[in-house]
Design a protein that fits this description.
single chain, alpha+beta, Peptidoglycan synthesis regulatory factor (PBP3), Domain 2, Beta-lactamase, 2 domains, 7-stranded mixed sheet, 5-stranded antiparallel sheet, elongated
Length: about 375
């Protein structure tokens, strides 16, 4: 029998030491994430309880997107506007300016929520889906728990004043990440800069997107602003620059100008201090490992998911990537069978471990060939 050996293939990359001693922003609480790797690049009291204000509308949209994906509703479906929804268009809050009895498509209501930040549109879509806004808020909270938002409770669909509408910037980041990852076809609404509503009984109203970063040359394509008198100004934002996506969330900015300026500062910090390494691409051969007694002497291996790691530009040669397996691996090998493990170590600490799967079947050689290979090994030590 062939002695089993532990075999390592070592590659060197950079990795990040997430020191933040020389960086801060003027917000009560904030967080910055590298979208592809999932690495947190900066956080400031990120689990502090906040009132999420209109960032709540991100979850309102996600619940609708879920129903669209499952075929339970369509963008062309129409919901009737109730007096409850209409009253929010008359009360001084941000509004789409809908009227009682209007029949409005799901797509227009979504644009009214996402672009115009209409509280009236939130109530209309919530009642159209769940019957009441209270029932819809239960769906929102259930979805929040499902995706890992552990410190969030939604009490309404719009984020307007409620002592029970609570979250954290970490949870808002999780929600934003989920939105972008799972609904790219609908996420495009969040980068639209204006929406015109052809309202009943008056001239069309065009409103601009309230996200200030969309009007900067940053590559911003979302997500949602918020404001409450107690919480002050907040913003969940995302930029996509040359395949590099960052998500930032901040709350407790003192002014609109500060919200914009400090969010840009946070995103720029992520862009200028860190790089992204794509270690493997999903379902794409990554390396080859040796095979014993197979019709092929090697088999290519792959990961099911993309594997990214964020690196700090000032640090080099700290990331070690190894392929570990007992081998050569004995045939037969089935396609998609786990044959090795990809391990990623930074500064002697394991920071990632992934299954490596066989990219194709490898059949065992016939009996005569096995005898010859075994003799060669015994005599020459050559497999």
């Amino acid at each position: 029998m062939l002695n089993k050996l532990l075999i390592y293939i070592i590659l060197s990359f950079s990795f990040v030491n997430f020191a933040q001693a020389d960086f801060d922003i003027k917000a009560r609480t904030a967080i910055l994430q590298d979208f592809h790797s999932g690495e947190i690049l900066f956080e400031k009291d990120a689990d502090r309880q906040i009132f999420p204000a209109s960032m709540t509308k991100i979850m309102t949209s996600i619940v609708v997107f879920d129903l669209l994906k499952n075929g339970e509703i369509k963008l062309s479906d129409k919901f009737i506007v109730s007096e409850n929804a209409w009253r929010l268009s008359e009360s001084g809050y941000s509004s789409m300016f809908i009227m009682v009895g209007d029949q409005i498509t799901v797509e227009n209501l979504l644009k009214g929520i996402i672009i115009s930040s209409g509280n009236d549109a939130c109530v209309a879509i919530a009642e159209g889906i769940a019957g009441t806004e209270e029932e819809f808020a239960i769906l929102m909270t259930e979805k929040a728990k499902e995706i890992g938002m552990e410190n969030t409770n939604f009490a309404n669909s719009s984020g307007i004043n409620s002592p029970d509408n609570l979250s954290t910037v970490r949870d808002i980041m999780i929600m934003s990440n989920y939105l972008i990852k799972n609904y790219p076809e609908y996420y495009k609404y969040f980068k639209e800069k204006k929406f015109t509503w052809d309202r009943t009984g008056g001239d069309p109203i065009t409103q601009g997107n309230r996200n200030p970063l969309l009007y900067k040359n940053l590559g911003a394509d979302g997500i949602k602003t918020g404001y409450l008198s107690y919480e002050k100004y907040s913003l969940a934002s995302s930029i996509d620059r040359k395949g590099r996506r960052l998500i930032s969330v901040g709350s407790g900015f003192k002014s609109k100008n500060s919200r914009s300026k400090e969010s840009i500062k946070l995103l720029t910090y992520g862009l200028t201090n860190f790089d992204l390494v794509n270690v493997t691409k999903a379902n794409t051969p990554f390396q080859s490992i040796e095979v014993w007694l197979g019709k092929d002497n090697y088999v290519e291996v792959y990961t099911k998911q993309d594997v990214y790691k964020t690196i700090k530009k000032a640090k080099k040669k700290l990331l070690k990537i190894s392929i570990k397996y007992n081998g050569p691996v004995e045939a037969p090998i089935k396609k998609d069978e786990k044959v090795a493990t990809l391990k990623i170590v930074y500064d002697q600490e394991l920071v990632g471990e992934y299954d490596l799967l066989a990219f194709k079947d490898v059949k065992k050689v016939n009996f005569v060939s096995r005898i010859i290979k075994s003799l060669n090994y015994l005599i020459w030590g050559d497999v």
